[in-house]
Amino acid sequence: MAKSANAGGAELGQEDILQFVPIAEAVATLLKPHAEVVIHDLRTQTIAHIANNLSRREIGGSSLAELKDIGALGADVIGPYRKTNFDGRQLKSITAVLRTKAAEPFGLLCINFDIAPIEAARDALNLLAALQGTGEQPSALFRTDWQETVNSAIADFLGERGLAASALAKEDHAALIEALEEDGYFAIRNLVPYLAKLLGISRATVYKHLRDARHNKLQTVEA
Fold first, then answer.
1. CB under 8 Å to 116, separation ≥6 — which residues?
2. Are residues 86 and 40 in the same domain?
3. Helix 191-199 × helix 170-182 angle, to 10°
4. Are the CB atoms for 52 and 32 separated by under 8 Å?
5. Are both 30 and 89 inside the same structural domain?
6. DSSP assignment, residue 187?
7. 33: containing domain
8. CA angle 7, 10, 11 (to 5 degrees)
9. How many CA atoms lie within 13 A of 181 on its CB side?
10. Is residue 1 a part of any domain in this protein?
11. Of 91, 119, 147, which one is at a domain's C-terminal end?
12. pLDDT tens for residues 14-62?
């Protein structure tokens, strides 16, 4: 816990500014390392406590800069508002005005949140979204990349049945090959060795399932 000070030994009386130190420490701990919490004593216009010091200010230092940023103290909660840290990082801040029983302001509890990591993540996501594009894949390119076409068809087959490619049974292989044959995929050259490798079965097994699929199709037509 950072040290605190009753700046200049000022008479604090009933409204002890340091009673808010546990709150400052709790908030700073929850949001660490991205936020600092500063308690200002308006009666001495100095900093009474700093939790997770990001701004490199000192306890007992002047609060005039903070007061200038905040302005009027008519509201109990001021902000959120933007600030710039000493190192150029952008901070998003919010201030709670601490008041006496007579509603007179005697202190401020300021939370300064470093939004640089969030903005960097947002920029990265925006860049990724821009690179992905929004249009469909051109049909000519899609036709030439037959492996991607087959992969998509297999993914649809597995998704409809709630299956995983690594856990297909013999009957699942047969059903998949029958579905691919039904949609005309076996007109693609080199599909058999590709499927054999993809499914972890022999080419002979692929051909057997294909013969069975075509036989079943022929019987259905003749019926």
1. 89, 90
2. yes
3. 150
4. yes
5. yes
6. G
7. 7-119
8. 145
9. 20
10. no
11. 119
12. 468 999 999 999 999 999 999 999 999 999 999 999 999 998 899 999 8
φ, ψ for residue 195 (rounded to 5)?
-65, -40
Could you tell me if 20 and 94 lie in one domain? yes
Residue type, 105: P
Residue 128 lies inside a defined structural domain of this protein? no
For 134, half-sphere exposure in the C-beta direction (CA atoms, 13 angstrom radius) is: 2
Query: What are the E-state strand segments in the chain?
Result: 35-41, 46-51, 77-84, 90-99, 105-114
Say whether both 107 and 149 belong to one domain: no
Residue 58: CB atoms within 10 Å: 13
Distances (CA, A) of 177 to 6, 53, 149, 212: 80, 64, 15, 10
Alpha helices by DSSP H, 183-222: 191-199, 203-222
Residue 29 lies in a domain: yes
Residue after which a domain boundary falls, among 119, 144, 167: 119
- CA dihedral of residues 146, 149, 151, 155 (deg, nearest 10): -170
Tokens of 53: 């010091």
- The one-letter code for the residue type at 215 is H
| Winning range, highest mean pLDDT, from 29-38, 67-76, 212-221 | 29-38
Omega prior to 193 cis, within 30 of 0? no
